Amino acid sequence: MTPHVVEPDPQAGAAVKAADRAHVFHSWSAQGLIDPLAVAGAEGSYFWDYDGNRYLDFSSGLVYTNIGYQHPRVVAAIQEQAAKLATFAPAFAVDVRSEAARLIAERTPGDLDKIFFTNGGAEAVENAVRMARLHTGRTKVLSAYRSYHGATSTAINLTGDPRRWASDSGTAGVVRFWAPFLYRSPFYATTEAEECARALQHLEDTIAFEGPATIAAIILETVPGTAGIMIPPPGYLTGVREICDRYGIVFILDEVMAGFGRTGKWFASEHFDVVPDLMTFAKGVNSGYVPLGGVAINAEIAATFDKRPFPGGLTYSGHPLACAAAVATIQVMADEKVVENAAHIGENVLGPGLRELAERHPSVGEVRGMGVFWALDLVKNRETREPLVPYNAAGEANAPMAAFGAALKKNGLWPFINMNRTHAVPACNVTEAEAKEGLAALDAALSVADTHTV
Prior knowledge:
Radius of gyration: 22 Å
Number of strands: 16
Low-confidence stretches: none
Mean pLDDT: 96
Distance between the termini: 44 Å
Shape: globular
């Protein structure tokens, strides 16, 4: 793709920002304390502002532009669908909706062959939990600390990070547990095998004390995303699968962020040889070009609703424009070997490059990831593993990470930063040259983080 020539237009940018500040209410923000960048355009792995500054997007939007911005085949598919049938109610059979479901079902593991479409990941989680509760006749759902499942009512209660706190009702039937994370082990483990065994025992104990017959589902992000990209140790997810089978608990894998090529496989579950009962997806299914999410459902749970109506639905479920974008995105990913590229970049460029940065920068405590799904855990002290900033830091307490982020932007890289971590999550079709450009920007900015180590 030929790089777009950025023509500065500060006056237009000022008008866009003024309208935003006057009328747009932003998520997760104190409205008077934010200063949103006015974006003039985007293409491939880059976007630019009205002042002519061009950024390599190492955040993929919110980890969803898996094929980059403005892919011509997907843009054309949306345009063609808009001319043919721009919208239609979800109760009807529509060709592009059926084709999107077929293409997704072809790629999901096991017998996850029925697809319930939603508008995004949070709604997918809401409906997956509803299905599990109705299927089992039970109410409780177990979820992990260090997780994120969405901002709707049930999804936010299932979430294990601080964004839950303001909306946590404490009455949603949610029980949280510790999933494995060897670098900051809650089980005092020293090896992956110990961490796996102790995490599984902790989950078994939690189930025993909560009452197995009260638990409808366990939900886990296959590879936790925003919470830190912690790769589960070998045997953990298959161990959870066995526990669920033993107690008749529905196993839900949340692949909203990890799915559709992000980890170098179509779905992250393929790395661990595990098949859930329900799988949620969104984001990368159509690179976020039109909002779309869904639940992939196995045969047993789908059969629960053969004669019994499923009490859930959405006006825009399987919206034709979103489904057209999904069909085109999946076809592009297959034709252009995007999933294979993500695996290659992770194995040969990002993984080695990030580990090399860790050797030279004392602020890097750990590098972890796969595909184009990586995190750097930044620390004050490698020996104590004290995070560079406190948990959920804000204001002055977060100054070291703010300075690090500012240095990245100054060097032309737009980061994904959460707490004491920076995530390297470019588009799945990022080139080797682009990935190396990102590594160079990280190298320069980590020198700023290093000044805060002891």
